[in-house]
């Protein structure tokens, strides 16, 4: 693995909120000032095809990258767009059982599901983004 790819992988792992290529570029540039955004994209593609990282599936305005390649859930802040791992362990995942139930009822061969948690991150809540929310949501946010 080249030095560039090592640094890109390290910065992606450190980031913690599933960055875009631009965000990775900003971090990597501090360590490798001569690197270009094109090189970042190329290396991210390589890392994806080697199975070391993955692209997030989902409806994001820009492609996001995940240093984890195992199945796990995400929680997304609807204000600032940060995406973090949701701490649901596969063993305690109640939705896995639902796959069987849905498969049984629909006669589909169910092999997966998509679930994403959404809300406001603690930093956005501190900044008062929850002001326009319903009383129930405000209650939960406080
Ligand atoms: Zn936020
Ligand atoms: Zn993740």
Plain-language structure description:
With 142 residues, the protein is mainly α. It folds into two domains: 1-67, Winged helix-like DNA-binding domain superfamily/Winged helix DNA-binding domain (Arc Repressor Mutant, subunit A, Orthogonal Bundle); 70-142, 2-Layer Sandwich (Dna Ligase, domain 1), CATH 3.30.1490.190. It is built from six helices and five strands. It has helices spanning 3-15, 21-31, 37-49, 94-106, 122-126, 135-141; strands at 54-55, 65-66, 74-77, 83-85, 116-119. A three-stranded mixed beta sheet has the order 4-3-5, with no helix packed on it. Strands 1-2 form a two-stranded antiparallel sheet. Helix 2 packs across helix 3 (37-49). The protein is flat. Bound molecules: zinc ion (2 copies). One zinc ion (ZN) is lined by residues 77, 79-80, 82, 120-121, 123-124.
As laid out across the biggest beta sheet, the strand order is: 4-3-5
Radius of gyration: 18 Å
Q: If classified by CATH, what would the architecture of the largest domain be?
A: 2-Layer Sandwich
Stretches where pLDDT falls below 50 for ≥5 residues?
none
The chain-level structural class is: mainly alpha
Annotated CATH topology of the largest domain: Dna Ligase, domain 1
- What is the number of independent domains? 2
Bound molecules: zinc ion
